[in-house]
TrEMBL record, chains A, B:
<protein>
    <submittedName>
        <fullName>2-keto-3-deoxy-galactonokinase</fullName>
    </submittedName>
</protein>
<dbReference type="InterPro" id="IPR042258">
    <property type="entry name" value="DGOK_N"/>
</dbReference>
<dbReference type="InterPro" id="IPR007729">
    <property type="entry name" value="DGOK"/>
</dbReference>
<dbReference type="InterPro" id="IPR042257">
    <property type="entry name" value="DGOK_C"/>
</dbReference>
<keyword id="KW-0418">Kinase</keyword>
<dbReference type="GO" id="GO:0008671">
    <property type="term" value="F:2-dehydro-3-deoxygalactonokinase activity"/>
</dbReference>
<dbReference type="GO" id="GO:0034194">
    <property type="term" value="P:D-galactonate catabolic process"/>
</dbReference>
<dbReference type="Pfam" id="PF05035">
    <property type="entry name" value="DGOK"/>
</dbReference>
<keyword id="KW-0808">Transferase</keyword>
Length: 304, 304
């Protein structure tokens, strides 16, 4: 099938690269993904990796714009894009960085991340999803949470990011279940809802006991034959409950919008519900594409 | 030098093996160590590893007793020793397990670990240090803390362990500083006392924010050029402060005795002091040797 993209959207993170061929009216014509994330690429490898994924979508008679967000714009990425500083709009089109390419049929724009000085914090990629969410909800004032390896809790007011806070809960879950003695007691995939709920309560109510509650997953498996799926679910609940304790000021008295993978967003929704919090999901892909689309359109309106 | 041991003490943990040749009046005649820990050995490799370390200390005209404690008695170790259950004396000499050997000039006794059913918890090795400490302080009633990969807080009454709680703080420090993005921001060895103290306060006062405080070590290094030694020291303080929050019931209103490596025990002593707690150090080696010595002597008195 011969697909020619009007423009191309790319979400290029630490471990994955996702690309969409976009047609008229922001329709998605095609999608491709790769596990060639930023962390595995040298600077000169970004262009060939990108071309391999999108080559078939290019029209040789014109220059196709590629709008990219994520860690591709980090210091270790393709080109470093200087952070915007809060309070700020999530995407400022006058601040896009162009990644120079040998191929003359593409022009690659990178969306900068956002930083906060006090307390110090950073994001790269999430600003685009926030921009997309705001595009779809221009009058929104409140709290957005983006679950992930490094979950972000973000306050939004008048289309601006006013402050945010990152919790490395996802990364902690990864290293604890893969690199500590707890790996002997947890399953890779299984799930037990009741154990997740126990974990949510424990983590939330006794945050200082986390180091002990984690060890008890191992002890429980040795002393009381704790099931591996139960251990994994309780671990997940413990770490999320801990985060929800720390992030209370964001979600108490706020209906939180969750933008993340469906699986993870559902966990956050459940966790909040167990603790009396309210939330709803917003599609991660829709947020990403709407954010990149707004950057593309403004670019286009300027050049016309 | 021709050293012949009266008996041999061995502390055989997950990652290390330590052996002492003991003479009259519990004098240490020689010491050897190896990094052939339990985790790297198959069942049939324990005897050859032990012999290589202690062979020169054996008298061919008699059988030398080897008193060993630690993970060598775990399921994955040489021979599994069934746990004692709290409340219990730390070492019950009627419960030692003999590891059978091909060599007829040694007789190897393993000290069992201690378990707790509710809440589930386990120790292997620390019971011997606790026994040693109690030997030297027979009237002690109170709290002992054994810092380490898996720190133990232990209540002792009338020479018995009444309850205990494990915090996997040391293991968390290891995986966080080696396997998360924080590794890019921390040094391997450096130290900054002021940063350690900041960490102690943060971890203790806002335990639910740990996932965010950890990420901020990375953000601070990117946004505000946080020094690597400062980041490492703050990480150490954060995790210890978190543990000291959880373990408050053990150390508030108690003068805690710390039994661990000098470096780690000093950190715990400092951390407690910063938060208004009192503690003093007791030598780890003295505790281990006194514990194994008491097991040896009782054995000997029975066989006489």
């Amino acid at each position: 099938m011969d697909i020619k993209a009007k423009w191309i959207a790319a979400d290029w993170g630490t471990t994955h690269m996702r690309a969409w061929a976009i047609g008229d009216n922001d329709s998605v014509l095609a999608y491709r993904e790769s596990n060639e994330g930023m962390k595995d690429l040298q600077q000169n490898e970004f262009e060939p990796v990108l071309l391999r994924l999108i080559e078939n979508w290019l029209d040789d008679n014109k220059v196709t714009n590629v709008m990219a967000c994520g860690m591709v714009g980090a210091k270790q990425g393709w080109v470093e894009t200087p952070y915007l500083k809060v309070p700020c709009v999530p995407i400022d089109n006058s601040q896009l960085t162009i990644a120079s390419t040998k191929n003359t049929h593409i022009k690659v724009y990178l969306v900068p991340g956002v930083m906060q000085h006090q307390p110090a914090d950073i994001m790269r990629g999430e600003e685009t999803q926030i921009a997309g969410f705001i595009n779809e909800n221009p009058n929104f004032n409140g709290v957005v949470c983006l679950p992930g390896t490094h979950a972000k809790w973000v306050s939004i007011k008048d289309r601006h990011i006013t402050s945010f806070k990152t919790y490395m809960t996802g990364e902690l879950f990864g290293v604890i279940s893969n690199h500590t003695l707890i790996r002997h007691s947890t399953s890779i995939k299984g799930w037990n809802q009741a154990s997740f709920e126990i974990g949510i309560h424990e983590g939330f109510e006794n945050p200082g006991s986390i180091g002990s509650d984690l060890f008890s997953l191992r002890s429980e498996s040795i002393v009381n034959d704790l099931d591996r799926d139960e251990a994994r679910s309780r671990l997940s609940g413990l770490l999320l409950g801990l985060e929800l304790n720390g992030a209370q000021s964001y979600w108490k008295n706020n209906n939180v919008t969750l933008i993340g993978s469906e699986l993870l967003s559902n966990n956050y929704h459940q966790g909040l519900k167990i603790l009396g919090g309210e939330s709803q999901l917003f599609s991660l892909e829709a947020a990403t594409l709407s954010g990149l689309s707004s950057a593309y359109k403004e670019l286009n309106s300027e050049s016309e």
